[in-house]
Every structure is written in structure tokens, then in C-alpha cells.
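Folding Problem: From Residues to Backbone Shape
Fields: amino acid sequence; protein C-alpha cells
RECORD BEGINS BELOW THIS LINE
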Amino acid sequence: MADIFNTQRFNFDAYGPGLDAVSRNKRESRIACLGFSYRFGNTKPAPQRRRPESNPEGNGNGFE
């Protein structure tokens, strides 16, 4: 949510020779976002894959 307490206000006062301006504004910006996700198809968890074991002759970093 944005601005859940509805506190976004803008006040403006301007005074000068021949000018008296007062502005009070309150933005209506309270919004809420809702999201969801859904998996279609197979609901069973995928089997975990095993990592290939390192080469016992090599140094185990995967390079030959």
C-alpha cells in the first residue's frame, strides 16, 4: 500500500503586492496492490537432481 494514513498533502501560500493566494490540496493516493500466482499442470514436486560427482583423477573443479 502507498500512503496508508492518507497524509499526502500540499499546502501553498503566496503573498505579494496585489496577490494573496492560499492553496490546500490533498491527494487521493491510497492504493492497494494484490497479486497471486498459480501453477498449471503437474502439482507433484519435481524429483531432485543429483550433482555429478567430480572426477577422482582431476582436481574437482570441473575442468579437464
